[in-house]
Structures are given as C-alpha cells and as structure tokens.
C-alpha cells in the first residue's frame, strides 16, 4: 500500500491528466444522453474502459517492488493484446456520418475527448512498459520491441475496425482469428488496405510517442 501511495504521488501529473480527460469524457457523454435521449454513443464508455486496461496493467506492474522476468513477459503478452484498444477510439470518428447533423459539433467534441483519453492511456502505458522492460532486457532489444509495438497496434486496429475482431477473440475463436491473420500475411497483395492501415497508424503512433516523451510536463510523471 505504501508503495502504491508513493507511486501515485510521484505520478500525480499523468494520473491527474488521464483522470481529468476520462471524467470530462463521461460528463460529455451523460450530457449528450440527457440532450438527445439516444444511447447510440454509449459504446464509447466501453471502448474507454478497454483503453484503460493496458494503462492499469503497467500501473500495477510499476507499483510492484520487483517483477520476475518471465512474469513480466506473460503480462507483456496480455498487455499487448489489449493495447490496440487505446488508440482504436480514434477510428470512432467514422460514426459521425450516422449522427444528427444539428449536433454534429457536440458529437465531434465528444468523440475527440474519448480519442484523446485513449491516446493518453496508450502513450503513458507504453512509456511505463518501456521502463519495465529496461529492468530485465538489453537496451538494444527493448529498442527493437518499441519499434515493433506501434505497427502491431496498427495491425490490431485494422483487425478491430474492419474485420470486427475483439481482444478476447484470441480465446473465444482463436482458429478463425489466426486464419484471418495468416491470410493477410501470406497474401499481402490481396490485403493492401490492411497493410496501409497498419503502416499509417504505426507511423503516427511511433511519431506521437516520440513527441510525448519529449514533453517536459510528463517527464515529471
């Protein structure tokens, strides 16, 4: 408990930022529900919950005095499985075309706050995982892993948005999921859209993460 309190104190700025954005997102959603009596965008709250899971995983691991190397690898696999859910919310702007024109400004603002919350969860969580990996692995190996992560996440975003796969489908329907992934890898020319989305999101997330690390505000944690 003392370790957790110390961690919360040291990481006040980042925790305050995600909690503030999350709170604002939920308030805006409740305001829209009251205004329109429509539950159409309620899924944003669920998406934000999924986006918070990677952040909660790395926050939990960071609160531990010591994490065994192989246990960290196991957690890393679970973390990576849920990580695409964080930036995935950016793709929810696609729903604007189905919303009421007279309040499209409110819906755009609403989705923007959720997207920003998801991206913040992503960047903080990746930074935490980078620090955790550096405790057990060589700098060069961690560097390669960090370069792979945004493109794996971009691929996960494609699977979620366009093929409608979920993180837990690796347990519920693993054979079909693996088959879809294999077809994309084995026949890249037949799935140009998958690679385009993967590369674009991968590059955007990689650049965004580098910018995030350079912001002095978050260097204070």
List the helices and strands and how they pair.
Elements: H1 2-10, H2 12-36, H3 43-63, H4 69-82, H5 85-88, H6 104-134, H7 139-161, H8 169-172, H9 174-186, H10 192-214, H11 216-219
Helix pairs in contact: 2-6, 3-4, 3-6, 7-10
Describe the structure.
This protein is mainly alpha-helical and 221 residues long. It has one domain (2-219). Helices cover 77% and strands 0% of the residues. It has 11 helices and no strands. It has helices spanning 2-10, 12-36, 43-63, 69-82, 85-88, 104-134, 139-161, 169-172, 174-186, 192-214, 216-219. Helix 2 runs antiparallel to helix 6 and helix 7 (139-161) packs across helix 10 (192-214).
Would you count the extended β strands for me? 0
What summary fits the major beta sheet? none
What number of domains? 1
Overall form: globular
Rg (CA only): 18 Å
Mean pLDDT: 90
The helicity comes to over 70%
Determine the number of helices (DSSP H or I, runs of at least 4 residues).
Answer: 11
Low-pLDDT parts are: none
The succession of helices and strands, N to C, reads HHHHHHHHHHH
List descriptors:
0% strand; 221 residues; 11 helices; single chain; 77% helix; globular; mainly alpha
